[in-house]
Amino acid sequence: MDDWTVLLVDDEKEFASTLAERLNLRGLRCETAYSGEEAIEAMAKNPAQVVVLDLMMPGMSGLAVLEVLRQRHPDARIILLTGMGSVSDGVKGMKMGAFDYLMKPVEIDSLMQTIREAMQKQK
Amino acid sequence: MQTQKALFMGRITAGATHEIKNVLAIIKESAGLIEDLISLGEKNGRIPVEKLTKTLTKITDQVNRGVELSTRLNEFAHTPDQDAAPVDLNIAVERVVSLSQRFARLKRVRLEAHRKDGEQSVFTDPLAFLMLMFSGIELLMNHVGENGLISVEPSPAQGDIAAISSLPAGTTIAMDDAKTLMETEGFQRVEELARNLNMPVRLEGPPLRLVIAEPIGSPV
Lengths: 123, 220
What we know:
The complex is a heterodimer of chains A (123) and B (220).
Chain A: E1 5-9, H1 13-25, E2 29-33, H2 36-45, E3 50-54, H3 62-72, E4 77-82, H4 87-95, E5 100-103, H5 108-122
Parallel strand pairs in A: 1-2, 1-3, 3-4, 4-5
Helix pairs in contact in A: 2-3
Chain B: H1 2-44, H2 49-77, E1 85-88, H3 89-106, E2 110-113, E3 121-124, H4 126-144, E4 149-154, E5 160-167, H5 177-182, H6 185-196, E6 201-204, E7 209-213
Parallel strand pairs in B: 2-4
Antiparallel strand pairs in B: 1-3, 4-5, 5-7, 6-7
Helix pairs in contact in B: 1-2, 1-3, 3-4, 4-6
């Protein structure tokens, strides 16, 4: 998993940075972006193989970011994080080409498992 | 009106509980990180005390944030207890601003509450009054644009009970802003809510400012 890069996108900075730290401790190389715009910029500079994307963010919505990333980085696997009120957006995201969606708060083991599956599909 | 109130309560509650869930998610990940660090430390014989302390501080901060959010939500839940009561304007402004912060953040708008010295109050329907101020905030938030500022002030002048002012981030302010906004559905909604409370509202500007005046005639 050494060469795998994951981009974690969430506007809750404390959440994103802490979760990224935990993923890093598990052997991933995890970067963070705190908005959709930042994520698109980060992907342009240094494309990640897997993007973990929160759906509800200020500015560009998660679905809008998903659309842009699917066009510009068709190989990247995108895992959506949804809240209780946005499950329908998670389903919509799957139809738009997301790899999977998980409900927040997410268990680290199931997130790791989903990232691993995404990586295997990516190879 | 009852349906409008129920919808309003639903929106505010959904926003506040979403924030509380975020707080809990941060606490959960921080606690998880502490577990990870301890387990790693046990393996390599080095406990990263500084990192652990930093993470514990993060948990404390989030607990305080959660307490503040749930206190606000609890106060809000008690707002409909009385159909009419004296409403402290400083508290009402503070409360509506606090409960609207999430909506402001999603629109990337800054939202501030101002206080006025001394006790200022109005006898009205407390929930309907919060709903009126929230609708006013939302109206200007939708208009001010990203990085704009909305400030809410109690008793801005004699005869007025609240003012919601907007300041766009850019330097260009269209001269017909107030006139354009008066024709929108959002303003009509504000007017309708204000009418129910017998409170005249006026839109001034640019920069845009929505002023709510004292209720006319007998208390609601």
